[in-house]
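Structure in, sequence out. Go:
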């Protein structure tokens, strides 16, 4: 596993949070993207070498809607960059981690992604992501 690629934060109102985080970082988000398969609208901020992803649900079935219902707004996941997501999924599965999607899917920001169930990672939702070339 490589560096932290980004940290995902669940928000109720992306417009408002875009303004709030722009004020916090002193810089606007550099992109927004809707991921239909996940039922989310996302925006991305750069802070030095780091990235922050804001996620807002676009429907009630979205994992983000369910997360906010249960826990409220806040840190939703930590994403790690990997070079070979398929072999990393295999390795982690052999280690006993629960993989939510064993077949990587297309996520935001031109990435193939897979998630580890928080119950196998001390309550932290982990995202693996591999840049699509
Ligand atoms: Zn993410």
């Amino acid at each position: 596993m490589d560096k932290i690629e980004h940290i995902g934060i669940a928000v109720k109102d992306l417009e408002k949070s875009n303004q709030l985080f722009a004020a916090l970082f002193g810089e606007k988000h550099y992109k927004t993207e809707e991921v239909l398969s996940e039922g989310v609208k996302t925006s991305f901020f750069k802070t030095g070498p780091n990235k922050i992803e804001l996620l807002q649900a676009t429907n009630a079935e979205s994992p983000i809607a369910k997360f906010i219902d249960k826990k409220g707004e806040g840190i939703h996941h930590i994403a790690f960059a990997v070079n070979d997501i398929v072999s990393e999924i295999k390795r982690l599965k052999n280690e006993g981690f629960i993989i939510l999607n064993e077949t990587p899917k297309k996520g935001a920001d031109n990435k193939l992604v897979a998630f580890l169930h928080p119950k196998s990672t001390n309550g932290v939702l982990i995202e693996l992501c591999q840049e699509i070339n």
